Amino acid sequence: MKTRFTPSLALSLLFAASAFADPADFGANITIFDNNSRTHSWYGNHEDNETETNPDTLIGQQWDLEGIFLDNNLNLTLVGGYDFKNGAVANGKTYRSGDIFIDIDGDASYGLPLAGSVTGGSGNNIYGWDYVMTLDFTSMTFDVLQIDETTQVYHGTDVARSNPWRLKSGGLLLDGYEGVAFTYTSGLTNTDTGFLGYSGNNNHYSISLDVSFLAGSTATFHYTMECGNDNLIGRADIPSVPDASSTGALLAAALLTAHGIARRRALVARRTQHAA
Fold it and tell me: What 3-state class would DSSP assign to 31?
């Protein structure tokens, strides 16, 4: 069957080029101090590097959350020694991934055990978050919900100052942001991520999600796992539109690749006809 160069082919090649991009090209590090440090208040590009799990929690690479990044195409990437998809195990229990909570009006509270912030169970959203991205690792998709007065959230099982962990119920589904695909990457190394694994464990993982629904806002992001052993906080001014130069460069590369494929196939066809 002949293959013609079409816009749809160019688009598929664009996505293919993106899928095989360097996994370490996460974008700008937007991680900020989570108000919850084990031994010091230092933070920076590697805010959760090495043993930075929350106070009085298990130390280990499998519990460490390392950084949040935002690229020019408005893709948010979370990186950690924690396995976002499969969780981490302690005492025979698997502690699962949480959801991503978002604040856009600057009133979210994090890193402090607020009144009413307890371990285990669920309750009202007393933390000031405005949106939540609910992560489904079976379908590898997420929904975005706007948090309202009906919203109930789950508390982490062990660390109150890491709350909330996951959406329980309520909220308004954001139109066009239901069942959106996201990516999960395992097998990342210290070199891939720029983070140091703890005590010889150099495994790192990442998840990447489209946050273009936040374009034009200043957003604060919060993520933790079921136990609350560590958490990540990030903040960024989200551009109104993705970086046109970055998108244009990828599209141009896809178009050139597609054109090259078409030329090579045409040349092979002519040589075959000549030989016949």
Answer: strand
